Structures are given as C-alpha cells and as structure tokens.
Amino acid sequence: MPRKKKVAICHYRVGRTDGVSLEIKKRKQILEAHGCEVRLIAGPRSETVDYIIDELEWEDGAISTIKENGFVDFGRKDFDDMELADKIFRISDIIERKLEAIYKKEKFDYFLVHNIFCFGGHISAARAFDNIIKKYRISTIVTHHDFYWERKEFRVPRNGFLREYVSTYLPPKNKYLKHVVLSSIAQEQLKKRKGINPVVLPDIFDFSQEVWRKDNFNKGLLDKIGVKKNDLLVLQATRIVPRKGIETAIDFASSLDKRMKNLRGKRLYNNKKINDKSNLVLVLAGYFEDSDRDYYLKLREVAQEKDIKIKFVNGNINAKRSFNNCEKKFSLWDAYVYADLVTFPSIWEGWGNQFIEAVFARKPIVLWEYPVFKKDIKKEGYKFISLGDKLDKPRDNGLSRVPSNNLRKAVKKSEKWLLEPDLNKILERNFNIGKKFHGFKIVEDFLIKELEL
C-alpha cells in the first residue's frame, strides 16, 4: 500500500473565522478526503493547529514594530536602517530554524502556503519559507489572498533595502512555487509587476453540505446575544477591519430602521412575523485585531449617533461549534441561520468569502460593489441589493460612506425584498449559481492535478 502523501498548510493563523482560515479549512477537508495526511503550521493565535511557530504572529512584539518601522504610512522610526534590517533577518532566521525542524520530522511531500509571500504585515516570514522551500526542493502551492501593494499602509517601503526586500520575497521567483490568486485583477497585477502568470482560483464553498437550520444546539443563540425572535436581524459576518466598510452597514441599518413601521404586522419572506415590539438589530459576528481597536470604537460611536441596536457577538462565535469551559460557542454558520438580511459593504476584498456564505445560506445580500465583485463575480448572474460602486466624501472621522441616494435605493429595495413571497426563488437561484461557479470541485480538480492525488 503506497504511503500517504504528507502536506503542510502554512499561514500566520488557522482555525478562525477570517477568510484565509476558512479557505485553509476547505483545502484540508479536500486533501484528507483524498487520503493525504495534513498538518497545519501557524502562529500562536490559532486553533486546531498541529505546529505553532510563535514568530509567525504578526501582532506580537518585534514583528509589529518591524511592520510599523518598515513602511512610511505608519510614521515610526524607532530603528535606524541597519537595526531594521537586522531585526528582519533575526526573526526570519528563527522562523527558518523552527520550520526546518518541523520539516525534518515530518518529511512533507508538499507545502500549501497562504499569504506568507504577499502580506506586508510580516515580511520576515517570506524569506524563511523561501529558504526552506529551495533548500529541500519542496513543491509548493502559494495562494496570495492580499498583496502588500493592495493595502495603502504597505505601498511605500521606508528605504531602498526594504524596496529590494519586498521585491525579492513578496512573492519570490522560485522554481518550486506554483502561484495562485483569487481574482483576475490580482492575476493582472502579479503578471505586470513580477512577470509571474498565476492560476486564478476564486473562493469556494461546500455546497454539498446540509443546509444550515435551527436545531437543538443553536436554539439558544438569540437569547445569548440579546435578540428577540421577532426582531429583524441584519448580519455583518466579516471581521471588524476598516476595509470592510462596516460603517456603511450601520448607515444602512439606521435607514432601514426608520422604515420598520412599513414591516410591522407583516410576514417576511422567511415567514417571520414583524410585530409592534420588533426591533432592527445589527449583529456583528467577526472579531477585530489589536491594531483595529480604534476602528471598532469609531463604529460604536457611529452606532450610538444613529441610535440603532447593535450587537458585537464574536465572544459567542467560533469557527465551529464547541464548549469552552462549559460555555457554548456557536459557529459562524449558526449566525447565518437566524439572519433575515446580510450586509457586505466591503470597500476592498481579495475575493469575498462572506458573499458566497450568504449565497449558500440563501439570504438576501446588501453589498457595495467592490472591484473584484464588479469584475469577476457580478457577471455570474446573482441577484442582490446594491449600494453602488462609488463612495462619497469621507466623514470627519475618516470613515467611508456611500452616496445618500444609493443608500435610499438599497433600503427601498430591501424593504420590498423582505416582504416578497417569491424571494426564496431568487435566493435558490443564487444558490445554484454559487454551486456552479464556486463548489469544491474547482479547487479539488486543481489539487488532484498539482499534487498527483
């Protein structure tokens, strides 16, 4: 009987509810279904990880200061140029030694590396992985979710050394690497900037799994988060990150809340009865990084100004159902079960995992038409509630906003859709489109070919 192929999937974090973690989980599921042994290698802020390399956490200690000293946007100069280079190489060498020890123990046949060769927030890691891959000639699929040049804060390296470093390693030209991107926009940019022509593999979803339903496990979710069963639940499922445009979700919820009188006494498309005691509640299921706390606080201020009911519920949500110290933790999918409407007003996305989740959950989606959606996803034929594709002048606090006319149109259409008896037919059609273009088979066929499964 032939030996099972061993595959390492590597990222900064795994087992959480961010898009990269979710895509890694899907790849692990596919590989194990084809008889592979899969090991997850990541930093310490991970769950269900096989090997932890502490220095892969980008928010910790010296790594965070490297990021903030390395790019002009952060405005920090704690280190002179020599000190900065020394710290980058020192962290890189530590990661390399630890990764090598793991490789020698496991003797992996393949690496699947996510974001390490493109993310500007932890540039030391890229050199370490490049060195090990070349040293041991490891066939590697590298998936680039977010290039450093796509983020404003990482576009301008501090000095010539940093410019050369990111040019060399983000991503490297290495004959053992097979490059994958999520969109045609990223494909065009990588080809133009680096002369690398990557494969485009969009986000995928397991459309063959059972439909998410109310059951004995999740029946207490609404009580746990303080939402009544007849409240209108608007779900924002993304992480709390500025590029997700969550302030627009708050604007939308506030405007729709003002029209709740038009819904009272009526049944929604999902048979929920809106009564005189029903409130609109905006539920935020995602978490925020330490570096995004200021954004989180600004969102709370906006919600208070708009006087809407908002719930930050990530403390009750994990990537999968669990009990933590006898306390029930619901999955992200449980939150979708109880949602009446999903908001997805992201300003920028590498692809947009939450979009396809809402499609699978058969929920109406309110979204701002971010560039990848406009170019690659919209043409697939989904029906959705649009906030347009233009932004207005930012608020005084720097947060984004969409033109008020676009907001009014989206609210009016949302009200109509919520009361539309035939909406489920539209949502079922969206589901079938998603299944056609974003089922597991797309990535499964690719992995079968590249890993010779």
Summarize the structure.
The chain is of the alpha/beta class. The protein is built from 15 helices and 18 strands. The protein folds into two domains: 6-201, Glycogen Phosphorylase B (Rossmann fold); 218-438, Rossmann fold (3-Layer(aba) Sandwich), CATH 3.40.50.2000.
The best one-word shape is: globular
Sheet having the most strands: 7 strands, parallel
Structural domains: how many: 2
Mean pLDDT: 95
Strand segment tally: 18
Low-confidence stretches: none
CATH class of the largest domain: Alpha Beta
Structural class: alpha/beta
Quaternary state reads: single chain
CATH topological fold name of the largest domain: Rossmann fold
Strand content: 15-25%
Strand order of the largest sheet: 3-2-1-4-5-6-7
User: What Rg, in angstroms, do the CA atoms define?
Assistant: 22 Å
Distance between the termini: 14 Å
What is the fourth-level CATH superfamily of the largest domain? Glycogen Phosphorylase B
What secondary-structure arrangement, pairings included, does this model have?
Layout (H helix, E strand, L loop, with lengths): L5 E5 L8 H15 L3 E6 L8 E2 L8 H10 L10 H26 L3 E5 L9 H13 L2 E6 L15 H10 L7 E5 L2 H11 L4 E2 L20 H5 L6 E5 L9 H12 L8 E2 L5 E2 L5 E5 L8 H14 L2 E4 L4 E2 L3 E3 L2 E5 H7 L2 E4 L8 H8 L4 E3 L3 H7 L7 E2 L17 H15 L4 H16 L2 H10 L3
Parallel strand pairs: 1-2, 1-4, 2-3, 4-5, 5-6, 6-7, 8-11, 8-16, 11-12, 13-15, 16-17, 17-18
Antiparallel strand pairs: 9-10, 14-15
Helix pairs in contact: 2-3, 3-4, 8-9, 8-13
